[in-house]
Amino acid sequence: MRVAMISMHTSPLQQPGTGDSGGMNVYILSTATELARQGVQVDIYTRATRPSQGEIVHVAPNLRVINIIAGPYEGLAKEELPTQLAAFSGGVMLFARREHVEYDLIHSHYWLSGQVGWLLRDLWRIPLVHTAHTLAAVKNFYRSEEDSPESEARRICEQQLVDIADALAVNTPEEARDLEHHYDADPESITVVSPGANVDLYTPGNDRATERSRRELGVPLHAKVIAFVGRLQPFKGPQVLIRAVAELCRRDPQRNLRVLICGGPSGPSATPETYRTLACEMGVEKRIRFLEPRPPEELVSVYRAADIVAVPSFNESFGLVAMEAQATGTPVVAARVGGLPIAVAEGETGLLVDGHDPVTWADALAALLDDDATRSRMGQDAVFHARAFSWAATAAQLSSLYSEVVATEVSPSTPRQARGARDTAW
Q1: What percent of the chain shows pLDDT beyond 90?
Q2: What is the spatial distance between Cα 236 and Cα 337, in angstroms, rounded to a whole number?
Q3: pLDDT per residue over 363-374, tens digit each?
Q4: Which residues contact 393 (CB under 8 A, 6 or more apart)?
Q5: Of the ranges 16-20, 183-187, 230-234, 349-353, which one carries the lowest mean pLDDT score?
Q6: Which residues contact 390 (CB under 8 A, 6 or more apart)?
């Protein structure tokens, strides 16, 4: 089987944790790598952002990344990418025609890629599997007051994809319910495919791994350490953690606490100083260290150095950071949103927090920081919990879905109104 994966707005080869690169990049590259190992030929089409990389990057046997020129290499924000949908689609078709490549199936990731996938589906007459990763209606429902809303145009485009895709692959049952509730999706079109973690890389290490990781990062050996890993944007909630840390220090100014925030700014209004300024305003700038995004081989040290990993997101389709942290033996305190209640076994591998009130978060963090025995037990259980999730298992589920979809007949896309479906005003 040969699959065309579409990831227009971000390359799976980019460093996660900054700009538009995050968990979706990890998901696409990890699943594609495992699918390739299982014998599926995968081409990932993405927008070229630098000329030095070349048109074709051979990542592994059966796996290529194809860089399509659509607009300038630099300086094009994600919000401007809809202007390049035609150029990108034309580039994909030109490459496939020039290389005499034919595909059995298209798998698009995120709504921009889905619009490209929809066009290719009808031109190539092959099925389209779509994974949204995030949804405008859901983000708007859960967004913080500091975050700007997603556009109605994006939501309409997502509705079109829900109506037209031959299959919708989602991360959790919660995401499936979101599609049904917010987009009136047909439950029969939805398949839950659980994400995984690189359980070979993310491990607790040996008995002195925490000590060594703290020495490498310059963290006091006897401090209690909380880590945050992810893009620095309001939707991911770093501001919640900073304010919760300020509350902890207000309660106990002598608390030996350090915080590692690992990630880069994301979004049109974000700057590297946004959260440093907040830490200064809250009086905890000496407690918090900001680390640049780093590759997985180095990120594992951040997880190992921490006593707790905090995931205060306003929504997550799954929560890869939570799973990676648990795989290293670090318990998680996470918001009770999206797929995080599945990623974190509450009371066994971490705690779930209702809402984003810094006082409530301070209570949850303190409960785990001050209970060494429980935290140690949760860390041990977290490793076994994470082992149940692997990218090989995710790829096997995707491969099964692909086989089912390829066996069905592809009919031309029909607008929702012509199908006599529900109200088209959305």
Answers
A1: 77
A2: 12
A3: 999 999 999 999
A4: 194, 196
A5: 16-20
A6: 196, 197, 199
Tell me: the pLDDT tens digits for 299-347?
Answer: 999 999 999 999 999 989 889 999 999 999 999 999 999 889 999 999 9
Please tell me the distance from the alpha carbon of residue 208 to that of residue 104, in angstroms, as a whole number: 49
Residue 146's SS3 state is: coil
Sheet order of strands, 332-335 included: 288-291, 257-262, 224-229, 308-311, 332-335, 350-353
What span, in angstroms and rounded, lies between the C-alpha atoms of 354 and 356? 7
> How far, in Å, CA of 84 to CA of 89, rounded?
8
Give DSSP secondary structure letters for 347-401: TTTEEEESS--HHHHHHHHHHHHT-HHHHHHHHHHHHHHHHT--HHHHHHHHHHH
| Torsion sign (Cα): 263, 269, 273, 276 | negative
Looking at domain 2-196+392-419, its CATH class is alpha beta
- Domains of the chain: which residue ranges? 2-196+392-419, 209-387
The yes or no reply on domain 209-387 and CATH 3.40.50.2000 is yes
Q: How many CA atoms lie within 13 A of 169 on its CB side?
A: 26
